[in-house]
Every structure is written in C-alpha cells, then in structure tokens.
Amino acid sequence: MRLRICTWNVNSVRLRHEQVARFVREHQPDVLCLQEIKCREGEFPREAFAEMGLPHLKIAGQKGWHGVAIASRLPLEAAPPLEVCREGHARCVGGTVAGVEIHNFYIPAGGDVPDRALNPKFDHKLDFYEKLTAELSKRDPKAPLAIVGDLNVAPGEFDVWNHKYMSKIVSHTPVEVEAFGKLKASLNFIDLPRETTPEPEKMASWWSYRAADFRASNRGLRLDHILVSPGLREAAFRLGSAASRVHDDVRAWERPSDHAPVTADLVL
User: What is the pTM of this model?
Assistant: First the structure.
C-alpha cells in the first residue's frame, strides 16, 4: 500500500480548512500533519476533516498560538510521546498509522537575535532541538519512524535563497544548522525531499508575506521537513527512488499560508 504523508504549516486551520480540502482532493494525502493550527482542540473543524476523508485525528491545541494536529484516512493509534517543549506549548503530537510512528512538530522560530544568552526564544529553540535529539537517540533506528513538521531550520546551503546572507539570520545560522545535523544524525534519518531533489538544486517551502510576488522575489527557505528512520528506507525507495515534493503552487492560492505543503510517499 501507498502511504502519502504531508506536512503543512497552515497558519490557522479555521481560516484555511477550505484550502486544505482542495489540497486533499487534488493530492490525496493519507496522513496530513498540520502546524500552527491556532485553535484549541474543541475548536478544530472536525466535521470538515471527516468530509475530506480524514476522520482520524490527534490534536494538540492552544488558544490563538501554535498548535499541531495529525489527520488520517487510516486509524490513528497512540505513539510514545515526545514532549520536549520546556514551555509547555502545543508544539508536538504523535500517532501510529499502518505501523509507522509519526511525530509532527512545530519547533520554535527563535526570534530575531541568534544568541542564547541575549534571546530566550533562541535558547528555547536550541533547547528543543537538544531535548528532541536526546530522546530520539534512545530509539531503535530499525523501527519505522517519521519526524515531520515545521522544524524552522533551513539546513543546507541550497535550502536558502542566499547562503552567505542567511548564515547571519535566525533559521540558517551555523549553530542552528549544527543542531539540525545532530538531530538528523541521532538515528541517521533520511531527508526524503532532498533525496528526491538532490543538491545543488535549490528548494524552499516558505516565502515571506512581505513580497507581493513570492516567485519574483524568490527568497524562500526550506523550513518544512519529512525525515524517516533507516527502518523506512526500503519503503521510501521501493520504487527505485524517493518520491517527495514541495507543492509550491499552493503558496500562490488566494489568501495562502506562507508555507507550502510537502509530501512524501512510502510503499509499505
């Protein structure tokens, strides 16, 4: 069977659930992982998701901020929690679908100043990465595990529009890139979008609202990720190569999120 996983920072699920429905109709994800849902659990538009064919839900909500959810066509079972946010924000939710353990994260953006001593938000971001890396390093790399979401780091030179400039800006500073690298190395995770689109081709999944035409300004960052454990390597490459993509056309829809959805297919 094909299991299509999608991650999307939707920037308010109540505002954009019709866009979500359109994307689901057009691309048929089996598991949809949303970030920045910006609502509490009881406010989540459950009926709309049932109508989309995604009735199985795991939601971690928060009033007005943050919030993550997993919506699935298939039954969504419990997964061991990875609660690594020291502030207690709704930034992580997990579940198991068809034997694949999936954890969906909205990692802190980190504010504007890339200094742990001067900026508590940046310290929180790195602390989040450190705690998550420590937890994942305890796991069995042969187990089928996916880490997805808005991880708020563009890890590679070709994941930003200008490597030299962005190396001084939060999201691509050397300390953040190092933290992402340690997370990836914790279980030797496979970066499915990059496996599908190797460097040096540039990739992005986020574009600022400040640009009237995001394609013309072309200042994107790859902040949204799908990482899978070695236990899913065979499923990811069963057809010979990884199948993953950024749906940047969605960023051009009316009243879009500033993030585009990212999908990856597993053949189980």
Answer: 0.97
Quick one: pLDDT at residue 60?
Answer: 98
pLDDT tens per residue, range 12-67: 999 999 999 999 999 999 999 999 999 999 999 999 999 999 999 999 999 989 99
What is the domain range of residue 224? Answer: 2-267
How far apart CA 20 and CA 34 sit, in angstroms, is 10
CATH label of the domain that carries residue 160: 3.60.10.10
* Res. 97 pLDDT band, cuts 50 70 90: very high
Number of domains in the chain: 1
**Residue 50, both tokens:** 């049932």
Report the distance separating Cα 147 and Cα 103, nearest Å.
5
Rounded CA separation 148/5 (Å): 9
